[in-house]
TrEMBL record:
InterPro entries: HAD-like_sf, HAD-SF_hydro_IA, HAD_sf, PGP-like_dom2. This is HAD family phosphatase.
Length: 229
């Protein structure tokens, strides 16, 4: 049985906070479809560089980046709304877990450690995912359209830890993108990055970078202890 303690002088692991897209769920291929569709609707083609730039971003910034890279002047709100609905349609068909991700969340819950889902995605997309999961898998959920300042601002993570009543300095956040890492670090969390492409985060951006399949509760506790012990 896992003991939720850290090194002498360090606080216990009070909560584990999970990003959604690309961290727990293999939803990026679904975003590929909707993002390419938006570019096509705007009269262009989504480049691989533009696709890389919008990972982890919010809808308005994503629409703005795509329009700018295509050299198109269009209504950002309309583009964002189109992207949201197309992505919702894709999510409704089913969003698969990344390998071992479900087991990681379940192991945290079995250890009695609170969990939160902290995502840049809008509530309409998150609800499509939550309907596919067992009820109560996350103690709280913070969505991108439920905060004033989305990632990379720390508001979403501070909102989650506030709801849980925990100290963000005693929490671990699992992320996969620079905006998400910046948000969690800004909130004071220890960040463990679990990108599908480890080379994409070669320098870690301030996070500990490990393969998702190696994440265990004991390892998360040890990471926190190493930082604060």
């Amino acid at each position: 049985m896992t003991t939720n303690t850290a090194a002498p002088g360090a606080g216990p692991l009070e909560a584990v906070l999970f990003d959604m897209d690309g961290t727990l769920f293999d939803s990026e291929p679904l975003w590929d479809v909707s993002l390419a569709g938006l570019a096509e609707m705007l009269g262009g083609t989504l480049s691989s560089e533009t696709r890389r730039r919008v990972v982890g971003g919010n809808l308005r910034d994503t629409a703005r980046i795509i329009q700018g890279d295509l050299g198109v002047e269009a209504d950002v709100e309309e583009s964002a709304a189109w992207l949201l609905e197309r992505t919702r349609q894709m999510f409704a068909l089913g969003v698969p877990w990344r390998p071992t991700a479900e087991a990681v969340v379940e192991s945290v819950r079995r250890s009695g450690i609170p969990t939160a889902l902290v995502t840049s995605s809008h509530r309409t997309l998150v609800d499509e995912v939550l309907t596919q999961l067992d009820p109560g898998m996350f103690d709280t959920v913070v969505c991108g359209d439920e905060v004033t300042c989305p990632k990379p601002h720390p508001e979403a993570y501070l909102t989650a830890t506030g709801r849980l009543g925990v100290d963000p300095r005693n929490c671990v956040a699992l992320e996969d993108s620079p905006p998400g890492i910046a948000a969690a670090l800004g909130a004071g969390c220890l960040v463990v990055a679990v990108p599908e492409d480890g080379e994409a985060l070669a320098d870690g951006h301030g996070a500990v970078v490990v393969p998702l399949e190696t994440v265990t509760v004991d390892r998360l506790i040890s990471f926190l202890a190493a930082r604060t012990g």
